[in-house]
Design brief:
alpha/beta, Rossmann fold
Length: about 180
């Protein structure tokens, strides 16, 4: 079986509650405990840093991919097992996708949402066949989930698109969904 490498999309905001940092750390630890690898955006602050630190603390392998322009802003994760510095966000996202075989979105802002939507569309269009999972233990994406259901009822979201994303509430449930594939 191929090693699972989970790409985690999450916040780099310094203005969030500690419970989100702890969630990200638990996700990183959970990934490592299963013997999987972590692919991240390569920053070492906020949730992005916590997921990588959690994975490494539990013996997991971490790959960070970060644009040069964000090395100082997001404080590059120089402790990563591998840190790839790229020219721009498009290259970053492409490499994150190509190095991963599962995608997990944690609570986050516009960057997290943009990455989630792009990977979701890619799955629907068969650019990849990997699981797309949302971990939302605090209902931060509840309105988004409702909006997606609403758009489906109105016919804007095609049959089969909504079912691609697996909405989960716990770390174990999210990682099980990453492993199951769909």
């Amino acid at each position: 079986m191929t090693e699972i490498k989970v790409c985690v999309y999450c916040s780099s905001s310094l203005d969030i509650e500690e419970k989100y940092i702890e969630l990200a750390s638990d996700v990183g630890k959970g990934i490592a405990d299963r013997g999987w690898g972590l692919v991240s955006g390569g920053g070492n602050i906020s949730m992005m840093g916590a997921v990588a630190k959690g994975a490494r603390a539990a013996g997991g392998h971490t790959l960070g991919i970060i644009p040069q322009a964000l090395m100082e802003r997001e404080v590059g994760d120089t402790d990563a097992d591998e840190l790839i510095i790229v020219d721009d966000m498009r290259v970053r996202k492409g490499l994150m996708e190509s190095h991963s075989n599962a995608f997990l979105a944690l609570p986050g802002g516009i960057g997290t949402l943009e990455e989630l939507f792009e990977i979701w569309v890619g799955r629907y269009l068969s650019f990849h066949s990997h699981p797309v999972v949302v971990l939302d233990p605090y209902d931060d994406f509840a309105f988004l989930h409702q909006q997606i259901d609403h758009l489906a009822k109105k016919g804007f979201i095609k049959s089969g698109q909504r079912e691609i994303i697996k909405w989960t509430k716990s770390v174990d449930e999210a990682l099980d969904a990453c492993e199951s594939g769909s």
